[in-house]
Each structure stands twice: as C-alpha cells, then as structure tokens.
Amino acid sequence: MESLMGQITEATLDKESVPSSDSPARLAERLAAVEQKLADLEERLPEDRVSIVVFSGDLDKVLAAFIIATGAAALGQQVSMFFTFWGLNAVRRKKVTEGKPFFEKLMALMSPADTRDLPLSQMNFFGIGAKMLRAMMQRKQINSLEELIGLARELGVRLVACEMSRDVMGIKDEELIEGLELGGVATFLGDALKSRVTLFV
Length: 201
Known about the structure:
Blueprint: H1 2-12, H2 24-44, E1 47-54, H3 59-74, E2 78-83, H4 102-110, H5 128-139, H6 145-154, E3 158-162, H7 163-169, E4 181-183, H8 185-192, E5 195-200
Helix pairs in contact: 1-2, 3-6
C-alpha cells in the first residue's frame, strides 16, 4: 500500500506539475482526483485468494492440486478449484453410457470410472504405478485423493466444474461428485482476478 501511495503521489502530485499559483479550489479538485484514483486502485488489489485450474486428470497432478488447495485453505486463504476437460475426471464418481450418442459413449468408456481409476502422468504401467503410489502413500499415512477432496470440502474450498467441458465431453450430472458448482470462464476469472496466486495444473 505504501508503494502504491508513493506511485500515486509521484504520478499526480509531482511538485513540478503543481503550479504554485493554483487556487485552493483547484488544489481541492486535484486532491479529489487523487482520492478517486486511490479508491479505484484499492478495488483492484488482490485478496487473500488462491485460484487453481485443474486441467489434468493424472493422479499425481490432481493430488498436488488438492494438497496445495487444502494447505492454502488451512492457512485462511479463500480457495477455488476450476475443473476443466481431463480435470473433470478428478471429480468423477462413476461413468454412464446409457442414452449417450456414439462419441460421448466412447469418451465415457475411455475415461476413468472414478478417482480411484486415475492414472499416473509417468510410470503408470497400465495402472500398476498408480496402485503402487496409493500403497506407498497409505504406508506413510498420507491422505488419499478421496480424503483430500473431503478435506477440501470441510475447509470450504470452492469446487467448480467447467460447464462447457462437461457438455462437450457428454458428462452428466450424476457422473460427478455431489456438491459441485457449475460455471464457465467468467466464474473462474471472477475468482482469479481477485487472487494473489493462480495456478494451472
């Protein structure tokens, strides 16, 4: 805030730009203009928010996104997670094929049925790598993805499913976990523009 005031002062109240012959009325007018600029800038200052775009449906990347989200929420930050395209698999609880057109049915068949089917981004080896990682996490008493999702909800993390991606991929409401919000780019940008940290996972 001090640096902001300094910039405004330098930009608007430079001694060389203020004629010594200005009348009190003119000075009051200049002061009002400065106060208005300060108010406008204060409205644009970021808040204690973190916004995360979850584009990946890989288990390790989704885990990282939820660890960051829950950590930030535990520190008192307002956190929102925007799930789009493959990231929707991170909030999927089952797959539905009935009643879908051919391509949407094919997309459902090729997608993970729920979070326990998410693959690793590397060394997946037909699912063996993902199962190994889950076993190693359990052995070291690290929260599973499902536990992190529950924790995120308890901490008030905002979970938003991209409505456009859901429509394109033919994902029905009943395929996603309960309690998700639906939103578009405007929803995400509304959070991101107020955030100090924005991440793309």
